[in-house]
Design a protein that fits this description.
This protein is an alpha/beta fold. The protein contains 4 helices and 4 strands.
Length: 110
């Protein structure tokens, strides 16, 4: 629901998104094509796989309005300073994902 709401807003319509799920069933997200740019990964995810996915997603993304250099900086120097909105309802998963993203150089907001 949150991703659908973000896609409805002009400022976040093209923001890259990564969906981590224990289920990779297409019935889980039948309108995935309308939510692009979206990459789906199966849990558990390895740090190296998440890093590679984020780099590839950001390299193909349009620069966000207001900070035209953010994507270029992220692609050039790994993921340092990339802002990530982390949406997770499980507190332990929040902590693990936040720590993983911080280790990758991202600024995670839960």
């Amino acid at each position: 629901q949150l991703l659908r709401a973000l896609r409805a807003e002009a400022a976040t319509r093209d923001a890259p998104a990564v969906l981590l799920s224990s289920l990779m069933d297409d019935a889980e997200l039948p309108d995935a094509a309308t939510l692009a740019p979206l990459v789906r990964l199966a849990k558990p995810v390895r740090q190296s796989h998440l890093r590679r996915t984020l780099r590839e997603l950001l390299a193909g993304a349009a620069a966000p309005t207001g900070d035209t250099g953010q994507v270029a900086r992220a692609a050039a120097s790994g993921l340092e300073g990339v802002r990530v909105l982390l949406v997770e309802d499980n507190l332990i998963n929040q902590e693990l994902a936040s720590e993983l993203l911080t280790t990758l150089g991202c600024e995670a907001t839960v």
